[in-house]
Write a structure and sequence with these properties.
By secondary structure, the chain is an alpha+beta fold. Helix content is 23%, strand content 19%. β3 and β4 form a beta hairpin. The radius of gyration is 22 Å and the shape is elongated. It holds the Pfam family H2TH.
Amino acid sequence: MPELPEVEVVRAGLERHVVGARVTGVDVLHPRPVRRDERGPEGFAAALTGRTITGARRRGKYLWLPLDDGDALLAHLGMSGQMLVQPADAEPEKHLRVRIRLDGAAESRHLHFVDQRMFGGLSISTGGAELPPEIAHIARDPLDPLFDDDELVARVRRRSSGIKRLLLDQNLVSGVGNIYADEALWRAGIHGERPGERLSRAQVLALLGHARDVMRDALAQGGTSFDALYVNVNGESGYFDRSLHAYGRADEPCDRCGTPIRRVAFMNRSSYFCPRCQPAPRRRRVVAPVAPPD
C-alpha cells in the first residue's frame, strides 16, 4: 500500500502538472472507484466537468484537488491506485478506471486514475476545498507544519497499547504506515510491542524525529517500491526500498549489530525488527493477592 511519502510524491506531481487546468470531461470506465460518491458515476462526472483545479493537498494518505466552486476531488489510492498524468493521445492503461480530460494542464495532458485491485477511489467532497469533511477526523502527519509534538507525546504516554499499534492509529498520527513504522522503530532501538505508557517523553520525541527522518529520506528518493503497482504521477517507481534497515529484511544481518532481523505477524501484516537492538519489553510481574489468615 502506498504510504505517506508515496502519496506526497504524487501530490507534488499533481501540483506541478494539473493545477490551473479546467476539467472538460470525465469518463468513468468502472463504477467501483466512484462508489463512495452518492451521486453515482454520471453525477460524479457531471459535478466535476467544467470545474477548474485550484490546488493539490493531502491529509495523511488522502489526496484532494480543491475546485473553483469550493468543492474538492477527494482521492485515496488504496492498495494499488495510481494518479497518472498522461498525454491526451496516450493509449489507455490496462486498469484505467477513470479518465479526467483537462484543458490547460501541462503539455496538454489528461489525468488517469488507474487501479488494478480497486480498493482506492474518487469522490466529490461538497464544500471540501479547504478540508474535506470526510477526512476531518484524521490526525495531522509528522511532516505537517502544524503537527503538535507535545500533544502526541501526552496521548501516547496515556496508552497501554504497543507503540507500533499507536503509530498506525490514524486518530493519533496519520501517514506513518507499516514500512516506515518499522524503520523508525529500528532507528530508535524500540520494540514495537513496548507499551506507550512505558516510554519516556524523550523516547517518544526521539521516535517521532526518526519517523520524520525516514519519511523525508523516502521523499527525497521518491518513496518505496515493494509493490510494482506503485508509481508516481509520471509512472516512475521509487527507490527507497534499497535503503531500508528492517522492513522486508527477515534473516538478513542487522546493519547495526549483525543479529539476523526477525519477522513476526502483526495485524494481518508483518513486523520486522532486530531482537538485539530492539529488545522485547519485559512482562510486568503480577503479584497474586495474599489470602487473609483464617
